[in-house]
C-alpha cells in the first residue's frame, strides 16, 4: 500500500488518513464506513495506524479494497487536485537523519572542508518535525541565504518500538519507506562547523523537511537497498543515485542508534544524502 495523509479544500478541514489507488486518493476511514466496516477506534493519523500493527494494516487494506468500486461524489475516491497532501507522518516522535553515508557525498564534504574524514560508524542529527512539509509544498528561501542545497534521501519508517535491535532483525521493525528532501542552508552550516557545533539551524529553517508523498509498505518493496532516487530542479534532473551505494544500510543504522535510544512507531530515519 501507498499510505498518506491529506486534507480536503474546505475550511477547517482535519487531516485524514488515505491511500493511493490508480491515481486517486482514497479516504480510508470513509471507505470503511461505506463498507460497514468502520469502528469508533479507526486510527485518525497514519502514525496511529502504524502503531496499531497488523490490525491497523488489515483495517487499511479492507478499506482500500472497499474503495475499488466506489463512485464519484461519495467522498471515498478523490482526485489529486481535490486534496492537499501533508507529510505522511504528521507528528513523529523523532525525525532522525543519518549523515556521512555515501562515498561520493563524503568526498564532496571533504573538498568543502565540512568534514575531516570518513566515519567508521553511522553518525546523525535531528530535524524538527515542525520543518516538515508535504508534496508540492512551497519552501521559501530564508532571507540572506544564498546557498540553499537539496539532498533526496531514502527514509524508513519505524513500525514498532525499536530498542537494542540487532541488524539481522532490523527490517521486522520497519513499516515502510518514504523520501525526504534534506534542505540545508550551506553558509550557516559552515558557520556551525567552524564554531564546533552540530548541524542545527542550517537544517531546521521553515520548510526544510519535505517528506513523502507516501509511506510505501514493505510488501511493495522487493529490496529498499536496490532503488533509484532522482532529483530535479526546475524540471532539470540533477541527481540519479542508487540506494545500494549507501555505506551503512538500514540494519546497520538501526542497530547502532537503537543501542542508546528507543525509536517509536512512526519515527522517521532518513538514510543520508546520495551525492
Give structural notes:
The protein is α+β, with helices and mostly antiparallel strands. The two termini are 29 Å apart. The longest helix is centred in the first third of the chain and has 14 residues, at 54-67. The chain contains six helices and 17 strands.
Strand content: 25-35%
Percent range for helical residues?
10-25%
Distance between the termini: 29 Å
Alpha-beta classification: alpha+beta
Class of the largest domain in CATH? Alpha Beta
Silhouette? globular
CATH architecture of the largest domain: Alpha-Beta Complex
Looking at this structure, what is the CATH superfamily of the largest domain? Fumarylacetoacetase-like, C-terminal domain
Structure, briefly:
Helix content is 20%, strand content 28%.
Name the descriptors.
275 residues; alpha+beta; SH3 type barrels; Fumarylacetoacetate hydrolase, domain 2; 20% helix
Amino acid at each position: 500500500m501507498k499510505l498518506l495523509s491529506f486534507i480536503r479544500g474546505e475550511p477547517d478541514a482535519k487531516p485524514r488518513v488515505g491511500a493511493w489507488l490508480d491515481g486517486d486518493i482514497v479516504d480510508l476511514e470513509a471507505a470503511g464506513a461505506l463498507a460497514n466496516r468502520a469502528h469508533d477506534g479507526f486510527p485518525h493519523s497514519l502514525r496511529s495506524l502504524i502503531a496499531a500493527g497488523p490490525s491497523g494494516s488489515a483495517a487499511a487494506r479492507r478499506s482500500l479494497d472497499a474503495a475499488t468500486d466506489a463512485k464519484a461524489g461519495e467522498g471515498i475516491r478523490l482526485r489529486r487536485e481535490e486534496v492537499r497532501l501533508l507529510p505522511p507522518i504528521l507528528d513523529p516522535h523523532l525525525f532522525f537523519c543519518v549523515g556521512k553515508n555515501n562515498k561520493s557525498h563524503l568526498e564532496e564534504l571533504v573538498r568543502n572542508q565540512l568534514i575531516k574524514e570518513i566515519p567508521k560508524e553511522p553518525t546523525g542529527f535531528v530535524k524538527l518535525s515542525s520543518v516538515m512539509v508535504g508534496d508540492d509544498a512551497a519552501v521559501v528561501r530564508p532571507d540572506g541565504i544564498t546557498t540553499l542545497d537539496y539532498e533526496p534521501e531514502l527514509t524508513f519508517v519505524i513500525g514498532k518500538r525499536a530498542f537494542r535491535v540487532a541488524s539481522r532483525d532490523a527490517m521486522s521493525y520497519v513499516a515502510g519507506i518514504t523520501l525526504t528532501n534534506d534542505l540545508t542552508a550551506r553558509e550557516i552550516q559552515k558557520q556551525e562547523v567552524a564554531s564546533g557545533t552540530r548541524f542545527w539551524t542550517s537544517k531546521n529553517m521553515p520548510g526544510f523537511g519535505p517528506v513523502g508523498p507516501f509511506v510505501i509498505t514493505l510488501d511493495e518493496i522487493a529490496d529498499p537497498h536496490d532503488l533509484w532516487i532522482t532529483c530535479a530542479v526546475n524540471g532539470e534532473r540533477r541527481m540519479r543515485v542508487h540506494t545500494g551505494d549507501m555505506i551503512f544500510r538500514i540494519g546497520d543504522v538501526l542497530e547502532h542508534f537503537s543501542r542508546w535510544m528507543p525509536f517509536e512507531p512512526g519515527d522517521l530515519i532518513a538514510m543520508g544524502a546520495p551525492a
